[in-house]
Write a structure and sequence with these properties.
The complex is a heterodimer of chains A (466) and B (251). Chain A is built from 18 helices and two strands. Chain B is of the alpha+beta class. Chain B is built from nine helices and six strands, in the order H-H-E-H-E-H-H-H-E-E-H-E-E-H-H. In chain B, the strands form three sheets. Chain B has a two-stranded antiparallel ribbon. Chain B has a two-stranded antiparallel sheet with strand order 3-4. In chain B, a hairpin with a 2-residue loop joins strand 5 and strand 6. In chain B, helix 2 packs across helix 8 and helix 6 runs antiparallel to helix 8. The longest helix of chain B is centred in the C-terminal third of the chain and has 30 residues. Chain B is globular. Classes of the chains: A mainly alpha (466), B alpha+beta (251).
Chain lengths: 466, 251
Amino acid sequence: MAEMKEISPNAPAGAKLLNWMDNRFPLSKLYNEHLGEYYAPKNFNFFYIFGSLALLVLVIQIVTGIFLVMHYKPDAALAFGSVEYIMRDVPWGWLIRYMHSTGASAFFIVVYLHMFRGLIYGSYRKPRELIWLFGCGIFLCLMAEAFMGYLLPWGQMSYWGAQVIVNLFAAVPFVGPDLALLIRGDYVVGDATLNRFFSFHVIAVPLVLLGLVAAHIIALHEVGSNNPDGVEIKATKGADGHPLDGIPFHPYYTVHDIFAVSMFLMVFTAIIFFAPEFGGYFLEYNNFIPADPLKTPLHIAPVWYFTPYYSMLRAITSEMVLVLIACVVGAAAVSVTKIKMPAIFKMVIVGAAAAVTAMMLSIDAKFWGVVIMGGAVVILFFLPWLDNCAVKSIRYRPSWHKYLYAIFVVNFIVLAYLGVQPPSPIGERVSQVGTLFYFGFFLLMPWWSEMGETKTVPQRVTYAAH
Amino acid sequence: MKKIVLSLIAALGLVVGAHANTGGIAWDKAPNNLNDMASLQSGAKTFVNYCLNCHAAAYMRFNRLKDIGLTDQQIKDNLLFTTEKVGETMKVAMDPRQAKEWFGGNPPDLTVIARSRSGSQGTGADYLYTYLRTFYVDEAKATGWNNLAFPNVGMPHVLWELQGKRAPVYGTEVVHGHETEVFKGWQQITPGKLTPLQFDQAMGDLVGYLQWMSEPAQGKRVQVGVWVLLFLLVMTVFTWRLNASYWKDVK
């Protein structure tokens, strides 16, 4: 047991109380480790505000969610009406609801930018692999949270979006139909589905999400933040044992983040008060029609933040499966002929390629669409081990890497755009090319990231006082 | 790589150009009557007299009409037909099964109709404004009516007494090298109680009311929003200077 620390009897009451606390709970220790003496690099740029903003949006979602649950009814016959009741009869209910619906989209905007930051500055690299993995877990939870939450207003898009996505699970060989049944709790999306999605949305997933967020932050504060230069600030410490390029999170980054928060809130509230539907992207127009299991909407589109993945799903036609087979066979051929390894490994590779090809030919394209859509998220988990570049940050990578990352971003946006649009032959082709590029970017990264001339990384971070 | 980029850019342009049309004629722009109390009240009256016989507005309470300048007594005296209490929602007396028999479907609830009908062609109000003004006589239909904005609509022209009977006039025009039938205008068969101008105005009022009813808090929303943004603007100045005063020590 730790020793009890004594404090002078003449100390002020506040200090006495703190001492009493510290002898029983690591209050000062936690404060120092996470705020007061957490040294963060001083050269953070614009992209570094999105972590704090994500935390803010999480809090907004939880608090507004608590108040929504007080009036919402998870019942297929009452759900739509209870949302309108919140919008009309609950005092300030419309504000709480718009905060929650806009918060959902804001969460994804902020998280996508946060992930982009990690991607370009190599924040996932050693020793921050676990931070990245927890972060990917958070992203997955967020997608589950958004998907299940979207069913709750029980509008046409809620209903048919859920129907389409749950039906995808039915494409899994052998267990598919039973799996879809297990998720729905019924043969069609119905009251049972609404109830279980509600339960997951308000209890199960948020619990996991909070746990992962805690793990994400604890891991970050253990190894320390990366920065736009990708320089380890802990490598250069001053006489006091603190990094020379580091500054205490509090007060420097707290005031910095408060400034960022006030700017973020201006955009956020402008949307809430002046354009809560955001042109049909944040609240889809069709979702103001109550769910009708007998009337399928002409065009079912997921909410904007899922559309890049939805595009990839739609891109996998039976034609596209042939292209995927060509990729598998090509990859196997190259690795067998170009890479030196024992014959047994070559046999395994050829065997695996043959097995995958056989599966691709025998199982419906829809299933491979699901695999690709899931794979597009899962592949992010492997990023720390795919990147072989000698340097972390985009600043010191070969110049053409910048263009590659730019194309990656444009490609992602194009896929998102196509996912909103009704299917078209040209859109299908583009999304197929886009899907190949997306996966090529990650799967070929071990090779392309090594190519080219890297620039010299400085010893200390680059920073100009402002 | 260049090819991929070029094809992506080229395809993006094509896709943007090929935006799907959902059927029906182009929508007219609805007048904005949201701040005109007299217009909203007139719309409410038309709504209660004509629409509420078959359509419900089951999430809308009668006493919410106080927001558009009516008193409880006025609502009770002029607008309550199906219920006694002003706190009730605008339900409908029609049996859904009979409705299905008569119109081939249950008339949709109109509480949020104006929000749900928005699309790439315009706002929900634009659609409703066009829809309500483009009914025409069509003997081929069971109800004897058809609509330009909603072809093969199940609803008869409830407001025909006001508008009179009309038929669309078509002419031929060459579009993209093909001779196509295009809508040219209207032919009045029998006159209505209202002149075309008065009818358009009445429909503008009705659509304004529907738009208001779809989100009664919208006016307040914008008002509050202005104050919130002004507050945040001031706060941002302070947080900006606070941040700067701390960071001037960081060298």
